[in-house]
Amino acid sequence: MLFPYTYVPHQMEKMQTFIDFIFHEVWCKAPIGLAFHPDLFEGNPDLKEVMSEFGFSALAAERGKAFYRDVKAIYELFARLSPQEIDQFKQWYQGNNDLEKVCANDPAAPLARYADIAPAHQDLGGQLASFFKGLYSQSLLGLAALRAKIGDIDDHYQAFVAANKMGKCPFCGIGDIKGEHHSKREAYDHYLPKALYPFNSINFRNLAPACHECNSTYKLSKDPAHNARGRRKAFNPYAATGHAIQIQVTLPHADIAGLKPADIRMQFGPAALADEIETWKDVYGIEERYKAKCCAENDGRYWLEQARGEWNEHGYDPAEFLTTLARQTQSRPYADCNFLKKPFLDACRQVGVL
Fold first, then answer.
1. Which of 34, 191, 209, 338 would staple 186 via disulfide (CB 3.0–4.6 Å)?
2. For residue 19, what is the enclosing H or E element?
3. DSSP state of 32
4. pLDDT recorded at residue 314
């Protein structure tokens, strides 16, 4: 990830507080043996009002009724759990929602995927999957009874882009992110995929706008926190401090017209972020995409023609041009893909093309 987003507090976070209450104060207390009823939500008056509307109003939308039924069904399954099993679910819930620790691969954040829950709790795992996979949906979040309490996701997006003005996708640096002057918005990516993980599908620490290529072509349901070898480190989309990714490009020959992605070697740094960088490259297909861009007629070859044009027209020698480009890259790394353009042209100079 090239840079982190700034996290933006918003009324929409209230939906996660509703889920926190449902989990801790309702489901985890189900073994006490009380009958399921809106009075169980007494400690959260806004949520109680929503549950009463969804559960008992003759005018309740079908999606609201389904939400009520799902909460009740999970309550009844939690009622069968032992205290030790309840404690395990509490640890999983906390771990899945602590994205900072998850991304750092901190053992204090015990992750749980549906695949981890199913062997011992098949029925409960299936019911949790049905509930949490459908939680982030306009058919639910757009219901008037709920929207009056939590606000609107389009409003969240406007607040988000007002604070995050880069205009480029931080996951690749290539794709644009629609901003305040667009009538449409980007999709929010579930960083820990909702297809794999319960408990965090409406946690905005786990929701980050991403360009279409990153979200819908390359990442899909790839898991930043796991690979075939087990847990791994990943960049935190909302890290408190930024970082500078270093890219070095090496070309084998001066035949840029015949350059193929397989010819290009890329090294990424700094070494201190090696684990996070490997995850980033794997999840978002970074090397494939960057190498393809270097080989493209309107990218890598155009960058070289542009540099040669400046050289021929203004008499800049390659060193002067690259010095100017280095300053531009420092101040505006994502304009015209300067973060990739600069190392590519450095490599061109190394093989004598520039």
1. 209
2. helix 14-21
3. G
4. 67
Stated pTM of the model: 0.94
Rounded to the nearest 10 degrees, the angle between the axes of helix 286-295 and helix 300-314 is: 40
DSSP 250: E
How far is the CA of 349 from the CAs of 155, 194, 256, 263, 284, in angstroms?
48, 46, 12, 16, 29
| Distance in angstroms (rounded) separating the CA atoms of residues 89 and 79 | 13
Q: What pLDDT, on a 0 to 100 scale, did the predictor assign at position 215? A: 97
Distance CA 206, CA 16 (A): 11
In 10 A of CB 242, how many CB atoms?
10
Distance (Å, whole) CA 76 – CA 93: 18
Residues 306-320 pLDDT 10s = 888 866 666 667 788
SS3 46: helix
Q: Are the beta carbons of 218 and 284 closer than 8 angstroms?
A: yes
Segment 278-287 shows an average pLDDT of 98
Q: What is the pLDDT of residue 140?
A: 97
**Location of structure tokens 């898991």:** 223
Tokens encoding 32: 């006490």
pLDDT > 90? residue 79: yes
Q: Could you tell me which residues are beta bridge partners of residue 247?
A: 268
The full 3-state SS of 189-201, as one line of letters, equals: EECCCCCCCCCCC
In 3D space, the residue among 187, 252, 244, 248 whose CA is nearest the CA of residue 220 turns out to be 187
Q: Sort strands 207-209 and 226-227 into parallel, antiparallel or unpaired.
A: unpaired
**Please, which pLDDT band fits residue 255 given cuts at 50, 70 and 90?**
confident
* pLDDT in the model for residue 223: 98
Nearest CA to 168 out of 49, 352, 340, 316 is that of: 340
Structure tokens at 51: 């549950």
